[in-house]
Amino acid sequence: MTIALWIINGLLALAFIAAGGMKVARPKAALVASGLGWADDYADPTVKLIGAAEILGGLGLILPLLTGIAPLLTPIAATALTVVMIGAVTVHTRRKENATPSIVLAALSAISAALGFLVVL
């Protein structure tokens, strides 16, 4: 079960850190131009905050379990990322956009949270 958790968390961490890094590093106009139309509905600091939350969540999936320091934070980070992705599904659905990537990430984050709680506790 631990190996499955590491595989899922590694993939999720890569996805969230990359997506969050893009949101933090690029201006809102560039994000909208590259296909993230939802960003146009939010203020620039809000988009940056979402990106920062994704980066911190991605790090939270790996670092606590890797270092052995407060490993309970790993499933908590996965739970928080599940909530973020449920918000993303809601936004994409309201905008009549494809929500499939957000649904997949939400499901994988929920699985990671469940596995994480089983491994840690």
UniProtKB/TrEMBL annotation:
Subcellular location: Membrane
Main location, first listed in the record: membrane
Membrane topology, from the record: Multi-pass membrane protein
Pfam families (alphabetical): DoxX_2
Residue spans crossing the bilayer: 6-25, 72-91, 103-120
Keywords: Membrane, Transmembrane, Transmembrane helix
Classification via InterPro entries: DoxX
Protein's recorded name: DoxX family protein
Species of provenance: Microbacterium deminutum
Organism lineage string: Bacteria, Bacillati, Actinomycetota, Actinomycetes, Micrococcales
